[in-house]
Amino acid sequence: MFSLHKFLPSHFEGFTPNFPRKFHNVLMAILNVLTMLIALASLAAGIYFHFHGGTHCQKFLQTPLLLVGAFLFVVSLCGLVGSTFKVSFLLWIYLFVVFLMILGLLCFTIFALVVTNKGVSQVVSNRGYKEYRLGDYSNWLQNHLVNDKNWGRIKSCLMDTDICSRLGKEINDDAAAFYKKNLSPIQSGCCKPPTDCGYEFKNATFWVVPKTGPAVADTDCKTWSNDQKQLCYDCKSCRAGLLANIKSQWRTLAICNACIFVVLIFIYSVGCCAFRNNRRDKYYKYQRSSYTQWGAAPSGITEQTNANTREASHKPTGHTFS
To answer: What is the pTM of this model?
Structure first.
């Protein structure tokens, strides 16, 4: 039975549509639909915070959520249209953006590990909590995250969480329970004065200054206030506690980034296969249209047919002559 495939040149193999090749395009479409759903969720959250964000911290999140959502939606749309309708140009743009995302994620992960490498907590004798010093953290974190320009908004966010008022309700006026409690970095830095100040405990958020004044010449001792709206939110220890929390979160984020990195590599690989399939399908359709239009097989088929004809002409006919 005549088969066209055996006459195709080697580089032409696999050009015909088949399920394994189409699987890459289908998988690509599914991945982009999922990404578009995530993008729509991000856009919805940003719009919600824009109209219903009651706190300054919530409203601060609306711009990043809207930008990330719009970016993911446009990129996913390019990938979806490119893989479904075999638009190679859109798929090329999609792959280029994903490649930049892979590089950006890798650079950010390395950067985060470097800038958070410095910074250790201070163990306090006979206390269940630790304390933090701003000078123990990298200059980049101090100058770009907790500088005076940003601190007003950050402080507003911390106050909105009621982290200190909740601590006061948990401990009340039990000094022994407070000293044994494992406070979070932000609670330790923002909700109480530094231990070195020598202030007398009354409750978790109210401390009495000795008549002789602070035990050490620390600016945080003077910054502390029993006003529940001030406490130690303007202390350097509060900024240090926030950086300690950021350090822990960024280390966790680095692990998440490694997983996202693997996923992006997988998506990029599937996208490359879909892009290659699109180009192959176009080339195959072009060859078939040329064959149909001119009534002649492609050059590879013609050469193979001529070779078969020459080989047949040299074969003996099988007749014998007496």
So the answer is: 0.75
